[in-house]
UniProtKB/TrEMBL annotation:
Pathway annotation from the record: Terpene metabolism; oleoresin biosynthesis
Protein name listed in UniProt: Putative diterpene synthase 2
Pfam families listed in its UniProt record: Terpene_synth, Terpene_synth_C
Molecular-function GO term, any one: magnesium ion binding
């Protein structure tokens, strides 16, 4: 219990500790125990080992074994009422177990996890800490009261920010665009769920505005614009020139003018915060993004199915997470030198893994619907092109395996990449995690009203803690 918790906490605070310590707590049958000679295991012990197992690095067999063993134990415990009555010293350990199994670490956003903990918190829990460790206030009614006040206060700030962003969407004329999706609330939920502190208000606004443009332009390049129109839009961004606007269709004019005005404003705010001109940096980030969109549009027009590797190289960029993070990072409260930016830049493994995991989880939940709409390229389809002898189920399994391995590597980058400021590391890593949540059961962005994302948004932004 303590060892697993210590391993997890040390890793999350940048200490590169070995997972071999868990081998001490495994018997000859591969089952985990709390102490030598233990005949029965406790729910809280196994829950802590399970939480620890998700902070795994590539190739750590012991962590994978711990995850498999504890998941099996905890799922069995949920079916055995007596397991909780016998072992649990906490008010609602069953609720904690249910949450941990449904939302393991890569899907558990800090704001949602905090709310879940508040709801499961027992101020009168008879913990060993209150007696054996002489910690009488470890569970306390006053703590609970204060944390509820704080949660609701921050939520009220988020609601004000969201109202401002909705006004921005309307004043930019985007309500007139019939080809795209309006997802301001769902998109704002993303940064609010992990960069939730009041001091990150501007970062959340920039993250939301940039993300909305990735949705608008993805829809524009994916299905709405002709290749000639898309080339004109890309040239206008590259030249940062309003003279080409008159040649654009009306809806594309709205897109470009909103884009031009918004990112000029963001660049001016970025200049104040970074002490240097950042417009060129922002434009370059977007030029790379539009090149990736254009390549996908050309593939679609030609009905071309690339190889898996060729697809992944472009699709890890076209998912647009890198664009959102690289611009938002300017507003995390840190002065970012070119050297620091390069460590989370397009060439960094950290950013590549974020884009890769985001693309793969997206594809696993959207490829069937997009194939029905005529799309020919996805991770699954491209892998099947490389391996025509395998069935679709095996290709899908391979994509999941690649993603799980990449998430383990992302863990290592997050823990060990200490040359990057903590707020920037959070931004990259949590953006990867929010994608795992959005696409847990389906396309949580496009079909947000049909998935659990709808409830997460309400709990994070609208429903105060009672």
């Amino acid at each position: 219990d303590d060892t697993a918790m210590g391993l997890r906490i040390l890793r999350l605070h940048g200490y590169n500790v070995s997972s071999d310590v868990l081998k001490t707590f495994r018997d000859e049958n591969g089952e985990f125990f709390c102490f030598l000679g233990q005949t029965q295991r406790g729910v809280t012990d196994m829950l802590n080992v399970n939480r620890c197992s998700h902070v795994a690095f590539p190739g750590e067999t012991i962590m994978e074994e711990a995850k498999t063993c504890t998941e099996r134990y905890l799922r069995n415990a949920l079916e055995d009422v007596g397991a909780f009555d016998k072992w649990a010293l906490k008010k609602n350990i069953r609720g904690e177990v249910e949450y941990a199994l449904k939302y393991p670490w890569h899907r558990s956003m800090p704001r949602l996890e905090a709310r879940s903990y508040i709801e499961h918190y027992g101020p009168n829990d008879v913990w060993l800490g209150k007696t054996m460790y002489m910690m009488p206030y470890i569970s306390n009614e006053k703590y609970l009261e204060l944390v509820k006040l704080d949660f609701n206060h921050v939520q009220s700030l988020h609601q004000k920010e969201l109202r401002d962003l909705r006004r921005w969407w309307t004043s930019s004329g985007f309500t007139e665009l019939k080809f795209t999706r309006e997802r301001v609330t769902e998109i704002y939920f993303s940064p609010a769920s992990f960069m939730f502190e009041p001091e990150f208000a501007t970062c959340r606004a920039v993250y939301t505005k940039t993300s909305n443009f990735t949705v608008i332009l993805d829809d524009l390049y994916d299905a709405h614009g002709t290749l000639d129109d898309l080339k004109l839009f890309s040239d206008s961004v590259k030249k940062w020139d309003l003279s080409l606007v008159d040649r654009m269709p009306e809806d594309m004019k709205i897109c470009f003018m909103g884009f031009y005005n918004t990112f000029n404003e963001i660049a001016e705010e970025g200049r104040k915060r970074q002490g240097r001109d950042v417009l060129g940096y922002i434009r370059n980030v977007w030029e790379i993004q539009l090149e990736a969109y254009t390549k996908e549009a050309e593939w679609s027009a030609a009905r071309y199915v690339p190889s898996f590797d060729e697809y992944i190289e472009n699709a890890s960029v076209s998912i647009a997470l890198g664009t959102v993070v690289l611009i938002s990072a300017l507003f995390t409260g840190e002065i970012l030198t070119d050297d620091v930016l390069s460590k989370i830049g397009r060439g960094s493994r950290f950013l590549q893994l974020m884009g890769l995991t985001g693309r793969l989880v997206n594809d696993t939940k959207t490829y069937e619907a997009e194939r029905g709409q005529g799309e020919v390229a996805s991770a699954v389809q491209c892998y099947m092109k490389d391996h025509p002898e395998i069935p679709e189920e095996e290709a899908l399994k391979h994509v999941y395996t690649v993603m799980e391995n990449a998430l383990d590597e992302l863990n290592r980058e997050f823990v060990n990449n200490r040359e990057v400021p903590d707020s920037c590391r959070r931004l990259v890593f949590e953006t990867a995690r929010i994608m795992q949540l959005f696409y847990m059961d389906g396309d949580g962005l496009t079909l947000s009203h049909e998935t659990e994302i709808k409830e997460h948004v309400k709990n994070c932004l609208f429903h105060p803690v009672a």
